Amino acid sequence: MTVWEATLSSKGQVTIPKEMREALKLRPGDTLVYCLIDGEVIMTPKNIDLKDLVGLLGEPPGGPATLEEIEDAAVKAAADNVFDMSDDNGEDVAA
């Protein structure tokens, strides 16, 4: 596990260290999703624009969905995955 430090500015801003940006393949304008779990912040990049994935898997089984419905479902699934600890062995928990 790699740990980085950053300082909070007077405006409440934090600069993500270059090495972390490179590791996560972050570019200017990318969106980050933050979750607060038991006092710890989990930050996940949202690098993929779901519009780029339209039609990739063929016709959806429940019928067509709007891009907003698809994006809402993807964000919910990502959040559910963050909170799902059923297969977690605890090795990646921050110290």
TrEMBL record:
Keyword tags: DNA-binding
SMART domains, A to Z: SpoVT_AbrB (SM00966)
Molecular function terms, GO-annotated: DNA binding
Span of domain SpoVT-AbrB: 3-48
InterPro entries, per database record: SpoVT-AbrB_dom (IPR007159), SpoVT-AbrB_sf (IPR037914)
Claim: Cell division is one of the keywords in the record: no
UniProt entry tagged with the keyword DNA-binding: yes
Name used for this protein in its record: AbrB/MazE/SpoVT family DNA-binding domain-containing protein
